[in-house]
Amino acid sequence: MPLLHRPRGAPGGQSATHRAIPFVLCAVFIFGLVYELQLAPTFGTPRLTATKQKDRYKFPDFNRYIHSHTVNAAEIGLDDPDKRAILIGDVHGMNKSLHNLLDTLNYSPTQDTLILAGDMLAKSTHAGSLAVLDFLAQHEPCASTSRSPTGTRTPAPNPKPRLPPARGRVYAVRGNHDHMVVQWRAWREWFTALELALPVPGAPEQTGPDGTLAGKPVGTGQEFLALIEKEWERDVRRDPQGASDADEWADVARKRAVGTWRAEWWFRIPEPGKGRAKKDWHMFTDHYWLAKGMTQEQARCLFSLPLVLHVPEEHFFVVHGGLLPSDPRRPATDERQPLAHPPDLDLLPEDVFVEDDLDLEGTPLLTPSTHRDFAAIAQHIIANSELSGAVKNASEELLHVAQERAVLRDIPQNRDAWVLLNMRGVRKSGKVTRDGDRGTPWSDVWNRQMDRCAGFDAGAVDDSEPAPRRGRFGSPETYAHGKDEADVSSLPCLPSTVVYGHAASRGLDDKRWTVGLDTGCLYGRKLTALVLRRGSSSGNGAAEDDEDDEEEEEEEEEIDDGADVEYSGSRLVRRRKGTKKNEKKHKTWRRRIEFGDERGDVRAELVSVKCPKTGNLS
Questions:
Q1: Is 574 found in the same domain as 430?
Q2: End-to-end CA separation in angstroms for the chain
Q3: Contact 143, 133 (CB under 8 A)
Q4: Number of domains comprising the chain
Q5: Residue 535 shares a structural domain with residue 476
Q6: Does 11 have pLDDT greater than 80?
Q7: 442 and 344, same structural domain?
Q8: Which of 25, 175, 190, 587 could disulfide-link 610, Cβ–Cβ 3.0 to 4.6 Å?
Q9: Which domain holds residue 16?
Q10: What pLDDT band is residue 283 in, cutting at 50, 70 and 90?
Q11: Residue 543 and residue 272: Cα distance in Å, rounded?
Q12: Are 462 and 363 contained in the same domain?
């Protein structure tokens, strides 16, 4: 029979169907594989091999960051030769050492401006940290910030005798340990106000996966925190060794809470972070308890602290971790780097133009609306020999301030809070690290570039120049033989200084354009201040010890974390139990250093006091 007339169901037709089946099955298999590997749309259908993803609560932002604050000429006070600016390194709650240092400096709240370089809190004693925070909160600008909206102060749960309001100003930047306290406090204020529906009355008591009874339900965050804090303290008393790991205790408590009313509360408690945030959100640390123990006004003060203080009159910054002069992922001469060209004054806030100390003679030459080309600015104002010295200096000053603000604004790393709080070095890849043993210390990077600054009249950088040009402010060693030409060519900028903390392992780190003040007071070493005063040339001086080295042992003592201080008139006076008239003064070290622009007249001195040998409390 001809093939076209073969009946349906004949052997030839069956053979064709059979041959198609393997192709269909193969196509189904391939489609299923692609589907499973997410190479095709899922259309919302659950994957057969999908694992249940751990849900995370979408928390509000508890970081409360304030990037920077400008301290103006009147606030820093150095125009008055009788006034000083005192910058102090990491205190870490060493309240007695702080006041020993202030005693040594004859600190006067009416004459001196204090600036703390971060990490005022944590790692020593609870009472000491709160005493330092209270000292900060009692002075301006915190004293104004910490007032409640009604203009009255929120009383502490257990009121203590308070110092009379001080007229001096005490500034501070946030440190990485202060930041962890900020996070816990902001979270705590949010959590304690929460209310959740209670289980149906009369329902059987709930049990967790391991049979642990959940206990009587609570309906507010305040009640739940009180409950778990009590349970934690109970377990520590029962088994100090077994319950010593608070993170493990919290993890077990979370797991036991699954399926009970407690789970909803634990869901709203942050878990320890990872990566950059690996030090954040650890339960029942001293950061946690400080967040609980502070008053409302102390919390407002802590929240108000910026990451960076900028003092444009003296051209320096204060930051806890560090700052970068350029984006290390690009060449220093890249047009996107703020030091590679004179600043664009269009981006300058208007308040810079009305600063009293930057007044121009007659009509100001610079306004945001008339000078848009920074090359023209450099040519017309800086290189114009017909301009009077006063006008030229004031114009250069404007550019200098604009450049400093561009460093804060235009370098991505300087807008990153983690970098400002934690940076210790920069790796070859340009990545920032907090590991002090890796990469190049950021302060070396800063000093190398500041040494290349040749003034705004240096003009734009030309990478095609055959020979390097020495910077106007550079040190000879920066331009030693063998340096790469691109690393020593001058830049059209003026140098600025950074004062910082955070690097106790490096000790007193005094370089030409950076001063590291963390000298390890927490570890029984020293607490150091940088004292600035307007006066004659600040030249270098040799180190001076007030006492012989063999007398150092007398400073060994226990931490005194009380706030035994009072004001007598305008002077700070410390009360000591059993103080004798012939008691020896604190062991101190003093050394003059060069600070700021060589054309300036600021005298700078480093002063350190011995801290008690308390051991490593980290």
A1: yes
A2: 97
A3: no
A4: 4
A5: no
A6: no
A7: no
A8: 587
A9: 1-53
A10: very high
A11: 45
A12: yes
Query: How far, in Å, are 321, 421, 425 from residue 436 at the CA level?
Result: 11, 14, 6
Q: Three-state DSSP class for 402?
A: helix
465 by Cβ neighbours in 10 Å (0-12 / 13-18 / 19+) ranks as exposed
d(CA 595, CA 497): 8
Q: Which residues contact 455 (CB under 8 A, 6 or more apart)?
A: 382, 396, 472, 492, 493, 494
Q: Secondary structure of 215-241 in the HEC alphabet?
A: CCCCCEHHHHHHHHHHHHHHHHHHCCC
What is the residue whose two structure tokens read 């200098």? 400
Closest by CA position to 243, among listed 230, 228, 233: 233
Place of tokens 């106007």: 472
Q: What share of the chain is helix, strand, coil (3-state, %, to 5)?
A: 35, 15, 50
pLDDT at 462 over 60: no
Report if residue 301 sits inside a domain.
Answer: no
- Shared domain check, 541 and 464: no
Residues 28, 136: one domain? no
In-domain check, residue 179: no
Query: What is the model's pLDDT at position 585?
Result: 65
**Can you tell me the mean pLDDT for 455-465?**
59
CATH number of the domain bearing residue 146: 3.60.21.10
For 581-613, the DSSP string reads: TTPPPPPEEEEEE--S-TTS-EEEEEEEEEPP-
